[in-house]
Amino acid sequence: MMNQMRKHMKTVLWIVAGLFIIGIFFWYGTGGLKTYAATVNGTRIEIQEFQSEFSRRIRRYREDSEGTVTDDDAMMVRQQALFSLINQELMLQEAKRMGITVSDDEIIQTIRSLPQFQHEGQFHPDIYRNVLNFNLGMTPDQFEEMIRRSIAVQKLEQAVISTAIVSDPELELYYKTEYGSMDNFQERAMELREEILQEKRISLYNYWMENLRQNARIDINFNVIQPPQRTERPDEPARLF
């Protein structure tokens, strides 16, 4: 259920991602000369961190699109990378404020459970290091920090959506309003409760996330999401990446 919820929430989140980026332009102006990718409530997101996130995303995008990446595609991926890092930092700050922590054991168990690092169902350190190095371009310390952040964000998401409930009177009223009678209510009640609960969780999460953004101090270096300038000879076709 939670995996399905996260998929739905991520879908909705990416729908509003573009609006968020556009809104940021109006709220905070243009980039200017800055030595960071962004700041969130005074915490820096370094350009190197942004470039690493962009590199991972553009690599996946290139694989999914069979190698075809245009300048517009790259711009979109850059925006998504920056949006993701800003969102993550907002949520990590909120997780810290709420006292959410992640233990070393949780990180270890999560990594050991990932099939990408296993052979015949068993975790192998050599496979782990090779996948990080050749597929992700990350060190173990970098990956483990990413896992720590991911677990913290998941715990925060769970804490937020767990407050959504569907009471029996609410369910009965919804059913009667939707279907005009209480016929077959008992047979459909469980499935309907889950559908309403999922809608309420998504709505609650989006409202909470938007409130978190609006109350944050975000400063963005928009230069980092501009495609790099290239100098091409007039008779030479432009090369992308």
What is the strand and helix layout of this fold?
Layout: H1 2-28, E1 38-40, E2 43-45, H2 47-64, H3 71-97, H4 104-113, E3 118-119, E4 122-123, H5 125-136, H6 140-161, H7 168-179, H8 185-214, E5 218-220
Helix pairs in contact: 1-8, 2-3, 3-6, 4-6
Briefly, what is this?
The chain is built from eight helices and five strands. The protein has 241 residues and is mainly α. It is globular and about 65 Å long.
Please tell me about this protein's structure.
Helices cover 66% and strands 5% of the residues. β1 (38-40) and β2 (43-45) form a beta hairpin. With 241 residues, the protein is mainly alpha-helical. 13% of the residues are buried. The chain has a three-stranded antiparallel beta sheet. Strands 3-4 form a two-stranded antiparallel sheet. Mean pLDDT is 84; it is low at 1-31 and 231-241. α1 (2-28) runs parallel beside α8 and α4 crosses α6 (140-161). The radius of gyration is 22 Å and the shape is globular. The chain has a domain at 2-97 and 163-225.
Mean pLDDT: 84
Tell me, what's the shape? globular
Q: Ranges with pLDDT <50 over ≥5 residues?
A: 1-31, 231-241
Strands, count: 5
Main sheet record: 3 strands, antiparallel
Distance between the terminal alpha carbons, to the nearest Å?
Answer: 40 Å
- Annotation field: number of helices: 8
Radius of gyration (CA) equals: 22 Å
Percent helix among the residues?
55-70%
Q: What is the H-and-E element order?
A: HEEHHHEEHHHHE
Q: Report the sheet-strand fraction.
A: 5-15%
Class per helix and strand makeup: mainly alpha
The strand line-up of the biggest sheet is 2-1-5
